Amino acid sequence: MYRMPVLAVVLGLCAAGCGSSSTTTTPTPTTGPSNTPVFTATILPANEVPPIVGAESSGSGTATITFHLTRDSTNTITAATVDFVASMTGFPPGTVVILAHIHVGAAGVPGGVVINTNIAPGEVTMPNGSGSLVHTDTIDSTNLATVQAIINNPAGYYFNIHTPANAGGVARGQLVAKM
Questions:
Q1: Within a domain: residue 39?
Q2: Are 157 and 104 in contact (CB under 8 A)?
Q3: Does residue 2 fall inside a structural domain?
Q4: What CATH number is attached to the domain comprising 72?
Q5: What is the structure's pLDDT at 9?
Q6: Residues spanned by the domain of 83
Q7: Using alpha carbons only, what angle is made at residue 146 by residues 140 and 152, rounded to the nearest 5 degrees?
Q8: How far apart are CA 47 and CA 151, in angstroms?
């Protein structure tokens, strides 16, 4: 006697569960390019061209380069600043960094400076063989296309530091986009 109402309820629930859903998912809107692209580099004397030998050859470091971009409605870069943060270790005590910048050039290929940190000579010292570089600079409007080129192909650019003993560059590393 009780089987019919129970069976009717069970069948009703099954029918309701088999119906189609009227909810739809809204696609996630795509966003434009990042306005704060970040790049890293592992800087080593062995990466210089030619590789560094001598007292400074045992040094190493890491660099993080962050661009802060302003874009127009077409996503063209219209202004930029750059933060450089580098940590160095393993250099002889008293080592002084006299220059640091981004060059154009694939791994193993020397190239010209494209974006300078504009540090003052002696601003970055390593009294115990270790030190850090922290510097922010405004990108000149004539270099905005270079910033876009770095974003498009970071491996085609490298960051390096220079010392009095190795004025042509003491440690270098290719840029890698940080995800």
A1: yes
A2: yes
A3: no
A4: 2.60.40
A5: 47
A6: 33-177
A7: 145
A8: 22
Q: Is 23 contained in some domain?
A: no
Residue with tokens 């570089």: 133
Question: Looking at residue 121, what is its pLDDT?
Answer: 80
| Start-to-end CA span in the chain (Å) | 67
Per-residue pLDDT tens digits of the chain, which is 179 residues long: 555 554 444 445 444 444 544 444 544 444 668 999 999 999 999 999 999 999 999 999 999 999 999 999 999 999 999 999 999 999 999 999 999 999 999 999 999 999 999 999 889 999 999 999 999 999 999 999 999 999 999 999 999 999 999 999 999 999 999 97
17 is a domain residue: no
Count: domains in the chain: 1
Q: Contact, 172 vs 44, CB < 8 A?
A: yes
Is the entire prediction scored with pTM above 0.85? no
Rounded to an integer, what is the distance from CA 178 to the centroid of its chain?
5
3-state secondary structure the chain: CCHHHHHHHHHHHHHHHCCCCCCCCCCCCCCCCCCCCEEEEEEEHHHCCCCCCCHHHHCEEEEEEEEEEEECCCCCEEEEEEEEEEEEECCCCCEEECEEEEEECCCCCCCCEEEECCCCCCCEEECCCCEEEEEEEECCHHHHHHHHHHHHCHHHEEEEEECCCCCCCCEEEECEECC
